[in-house]
Design goal:
The structure is a homodimer. Helices cover about 40% and strands about 10% of the residues of chain A. Chain A is built from 9 helices and 7 strands; from the N terminus they run ααααβαβαβαββαβαβ. In chain A, strands 2-1-3-4-5 form a 5-stranded parallel sheet, sandwiched between helices. A two-stranded parallel sheet of chain A has the order 6-7. In chain A, helix 1 crosses helix 3 and helix 8 packs parallel to helix 9. At the A-B interface, helix 4, helix 5, strand 2 and helix 6 of A face helix 4, helix 5, strand 2 and helix 6 of B. Chain A binds a DNA duplex (16 and 16 nucleotides) through helix 2 and helix 4.
DNA sequence: TTGTACGCGTTATCAG
DNA sequence: CTGATAACGCGTACAA
């Protein structure tokens, strides 16, 4: 029950490999008879083109890599959905890799994607308290990539968020509603988003002359407990379900 | 800035391709000097093995395909996380495909995965009101797969859920708490899980002699609105965030 | 210990 | 219009 190849098809139809390949790729210039023969044989034997082989000669794989932190985080799974929809529209498939907030995992995944010769990469990297050597190294390679967040001194495509602005808006909303005892839950120390949002919050509070009570500042939140169903007893299931990165 | 190959390394070191390959694959029987030379050159020129080429001759890709309905559904993203963790432990990478409740998309994705010659496939297929021809066809091919849910007349690996039991338990819990005006929100008609849960609910109600009020039965729920952050304005963003399949 | 030749499945380039 | 042949990058026998 091996996979049938173009050579097999050539043998059974009595044609040459190149002819079979041509017909299968809808090239011009083949007699209707030949076309028929090839197509019928392909159908009959359940021929499925081997994209690995195709990729080797065409030097492209039709795959892109997406490296995120945690697929159970709604921010990332919505983003993944979007990436996937667009990829699909363009005939691409996506490799999903989760770094799980581990710098080592991030490095490993990027290398794996390069080994698999993806046609492109979308990366949501850890942005604080880590080195970016692996990203600079990636930049020396032929594979194009987009980063979620800017890296100092690296000229490349990025998607950025106004985390400072968001933090300010949130603080202002609460202050304008007349609140003064406002708390803040910070995320992991590797999250630049969390850092910026907190800075904005602190700046806004200071500007309005409202003191921050340290009792209400928390650190290292890895997620929000939600009402989401959980896969019961899945290993040491780390919950990390609703906090944007 | 092309990708560097084993042949390039052979050229710059003045060694043979097979020597380079041997060293890179940690084979026995090479002088320390040769080893050094190869490793240094590989490092210097940023050599990254081409898994496409490797896959072509080894007839394996180190990738598995995962076909689910919607990655923003917590049931599926937790499942995806699990699949991914195990895959990674074994040195595999996963292709993520979302069928989005479309039978056509499911078929298309399965074919794409076969073309990409994944080493295996995990599929959460639509189970009601659809044909299974594509699954039977898949079963004729060399690629192993696991299904979420059983298909009549198909001998293959499956993972199953006790949806009927769950529906019964839920009904019993409410009845035993003294409730009688109980509603039920059914999912899509292609969801067997939803169908079975409703049957269990209806059976339980009947057995207890509690009448079902049709006013409280709803159909076609595609998701639960949650407090999850949304990617704002992402196309016609269909929300489908928290209902198990 | 090292080098050569072939196969993996496709595509592309030439001849016929 | 069709057929032979050479890449593509790697592994793996086999030979030197």
């Amino acid at each position: 029950m091996m996979n049938i190849t173009i050579a097999d098809l050539a043998k059974v139809t009595g044609l040459a490999k190149s002819t079979v390949s041509g017909v299968l790729n809808n090239k011009e210039g083949f007699s209707a008879k030949t076309r028929q023969k090839v197509l019928q044989a392909a159908e009959k034997y359940g021929y499925v083109p081997n994209e690995i082989a195709r990729g080797l000669s065409s030097n492209s794989t039709g795959s892109i890599g997406l490296i995120i932190k945690d697929i159970t985080n709604p921010f990332y799974n919505h983003m993944t959905k979007g990436v996937q929809e667009v990829a699909e529209e363009h005939g691409y498939t996506v490799f999903l890799c989760s770094s799980g907030e581990s710098h080592q995992a991030e490095i490993k995944h990027i290398q794996a994607m390069v080994r698999k010769r993806v046609d492109g990469l979308v990366i949501a990297p850890l942005l604080e308290e880590v080195s970016f050597d692996h990203i600079f190294a990636l930049n020396q390679k032929p594979v194009p990539f987009v980063l979620l967040g800017k890296i100092q001194g690296l000229e490349c495509d990025t998607v950025e968020f106004d985390d400072y602005g968001g933090g300010r808006q949130a603080a202002e909303l609460l202050l304008e509603s007349g609140h003064t005892r406002i708390g803040f839950v910070r995320g992991l120390s590797t999250s630049r988003a969390s850092k910026l949002r907190f800075e904005a919050f602190a700046d806004t509070m200071r500007q309005r002359g409202v003191p921050i009570d340290e009792k209400f500042i928390f650190d290292g939140a890895k997620g929000l407990r939600t009402a989401s169903p959980q896969v019961p007893g899945w290993r040491k299931q780390k919950r990390r379900t609703a906090l944007p990165p």
